[in-house]
Each structure stands twice: as structure tokens, then as C-alpha cells.
Amino acid sequence: MRRPRLSEAPAAVREAVSEMLCGPIRAERPSTAGFTPSIASVVAGPRGWLFVKAAPVGDGLGEAVAAGVVLAGVVGDLGPRLVGAAETGAWRVAAYEVIEGEAPRCTTATCGGTMCCGSRTADCASWTGVICGPRRDGSMSCA
């Protein structure tokens, strides 16, 4: 899956990001990992670096960007600080502070006939992560 770049987004989306950067976008580093095919890039401008998520509404991706904006106030210090958000026509845009770290890695395996995604140390019984977890009967549940 090729992730779209911010430079390929509609002009109104790029202008919204430029406003959040207090000037033009000078560089873009698209994310090479993630769980959705929406725009996810680290961009540079006069204000520094921002992590930008952007997507059109209608297929769930733009709605997910908007939901992330709402949740940013709930997670507080547990996640990157929301710097700005915009609705530009049919697109939703969110910009966050850039924090050091690694993108989540996803390992898949079939556990009892169910495909699980997360990380594991040895076998299906030791899976950890938000997408895969054990049921009371010991089988794996994937959400």
C-alpha cells in the first residue's frame, strides 16, 4: 500500500497545514508505517516540525482524523499534543507535536483460527497489544 503524501493533497489542505506551521511547508517525510492509508507525514516549516494526519470524509478515514482531534483532549499527556485541526471542504486535518519513538510494529498470526495483530514473545498465549488480547477461555480475541 502506497501512502499518499501531503504534497498530493488538495491546496486547501496544504494551506491549512501551512497556517499551523506559521508559514510554508519546507519539507515532508511521509510515514512508512501505520494502520490506515490516510496521509501521515512529518512536515517542517517556520514553526518547526509537526506530525500531520489528513484524509477525506466519507470512507471513515476523515472521520478517524476528526475523532483523533476529539480524543487528543482526553488522552492528555499520554499522547502527542494536538497543535491544530482544520476542516477544509471534504477533508479533515490534524497536526500534532512530533515525539521521539518508533511506529508500532504489527505481527500477525492465526490463533485458534482467528487472525491476530500485535506483538508476541513466543506463542499465541503471550500476545500483547491493543488489537489482540486473550479471552477468558484462553483463546485470542482480535478487535
Strand order of the largest sheet: 1-2-3-5-4
Q: Unreliable stretches, pLDDT < 50, 5 or more residues?
A: 119-133
The helix count comes to: 2
Class by alpha and beta content: alpha+beta
- The SSE order reads HEEEHEEEEEE
Distance between the termini: 22 Å
Question: Would you mind describing this structure in some detail?
Answer:
The chain is of the alpha+beta class and 143 residues long. It is 18% helix and 35% strand. A 5-stranded antiparallel beta sheet has the order 1-2-3-5-4, with helices on both faces. It has a two-stranded antiparallel ribbon with strand order 6-7. Strand 6 and strand 7 form a beta hairpin. The longest helix is centred in the middle third of the chain and has 15 residues, at 61-75. The radius of gyration is 17 Å and the shape is globular.
Q: Which terms summarize this structure?
A:
two-stranded antiparallel sheet; 2 helices; single chain; alpha+beta; about 140 residues
